[in-house]
């Protein structure tokens, strides 16, 4: 698959944005520096291809955007796409547990966790909004500090104070 990419600064570090050429430039990846499972190849750099993405991410980080309106083309199997659709349905500032999502899909929490771990479009497909059954933060390909920061951005609370950007 042929792709374009660019990078942008964010409060959580540099983000690499990837778009699939065969999907009219739809966003196919957002990766943090040091991201576990990041892209193997990035393709050509094309800053213009992301003119719609960068402002929406900037608005999100500024607290001015709670939903994204972007064409998406994440690569995954049918089950992963079903999980990612549930992630997109989690409202801004809210969380769900792996178990809740698993029950909704008739799957095991570990299967849901595996699909979430392969989410290629961080932030826009908000896997940071999924927590453990006991309320704990569990794995995040961008690192748990970034997960804390994203949750704090969406729902500031005393428990998260000092963990912000």
From TrEMBL:
GO terms for cellular component: cytoplasm. PANTHER family: METHYLATED-DNA--PROTEIN-CYSTEINE METHYLTRANSFERASE. The active site is at 127 (nucleophile). Residues 5-74 form the Methylguanine DNA methyltransferase ribonuclease-like domain. Residues 78-155 form the Methylated-DNA-[protein]-cysteine S-methyltransferase DNA binding domain. It holds the Pfam family Methyltransf_1N. One of its GO terms (molecular function) is methylated-DNA-[protein]-cysteine S-methyltransferase activity. It catalyses: a 4-O-methyl-thymidine in DNA + L-cysteinyl-[protein] = a thymidine in DNA + S-methyl-L-cysteinyl-[protein]; a 6-O-methyl-2'-deoxyguanosine in DNA + L-cysteinyl-[protein] = S-methyl-L-cysteinyl-[protein] + a 2'-deoxyguanosine in DNA. Its EC number is 2.1.1.63. SUPFAM superfamilies: Methylated DNA-protein cysteine methyltransferase domain, Methylated DNA-protein cysteine methyltransferase, C-terminal domain. It comes from the Bacteria. GO terms for biological process: DNA alkylation repair; methylation. Involved in the cellular defense against the biological effects of O6-methylguanine (O6-MeG) and O4-methylthymine (O4-MeT) in DNA. Repairs the methylated nucleobase in DNA by stoichiometrically transferring the methyl group to a cysteine residue in the enzyme. This is a suicide reaction: the enzyme is irreversibly inactivated. This is Methylated-DNA--protein-cysteine methyltransferase. Its main location: cytoplasm. Keywords: Cytoplasm, DNA damage, DNA repair, Methyltransferase, Transferase. The keyword DNA repair applies. This enzyme catalyzes only one turnover and therefore is not strictly catalytic. According to one definition, an enzyme is a biocatalyst that acts repeatedly and over many reaction cycles. HAMAP family: OGT. Belongs to the MGMT family. It is found in: Cytoplasm. It is an enzyme of class 2 (transferase).
